[in-house]
Amino acid sequence: MMHKFDVIRETIFTERSTVLAEKENTYTFRVLPHANKVEVKRAVEAAFHVKVVDVRIVNVHPKRKVDRQRGIVGRSPGYKKAMVKLAKGYSIEFA
Questions:
Q1: Which CATH class, in words, describes the domain spanning 4-86?
Q2: What gap in Å lies between CA 77 and CA 19, rounded to an integer?
């Protein structure tokens, strides 16, 4: 049986996700491919002891990669991304 913490794989730190965290109190996570909004909400609330207001989920499609020197064509893996908005007064601190 899967534990509720297993839904979250890692935190995504990009320029856009940093701006969302600062201005809109929304944090971005990479989650399991079969995870739904309810599972993500429960996992974030349990892991970080915060109140979640909204969860948005995006399937990031794989991108084509080409190595021009060796002529190798491949794909980067796709993944599922969840953007979690916290209630006012809550935040997540990453060390």
A1: alpha beta
A2: 25
- CB contact set of 46 (below 8 Å; sequence gap of 6+): 4, 5
| Closest to 37 (Cα-Cα) out of 1, 95, 80 | 80
How many Cα atoms sit within 13 Å of 43 on the Cβ side?
24
Q: Is 75 left (phi over 0), alpha (psi -120 to 50) or beta?
A: beta
pLDDT of residue 4 exceeding 90: no
Using pLDDT thresholds of 50, 70 and 90, give the confidence band for residue 1: low
Q: Which pLDDT tens digit goes with each residue over 42-91?
A: 999 999 999 999 999 999 999 998 888 887 789 999 999 999 999 999 99
Judged by phi (left if over 0) then psi (alpha if -120 to 50, else beta), residue 25 lies in: left
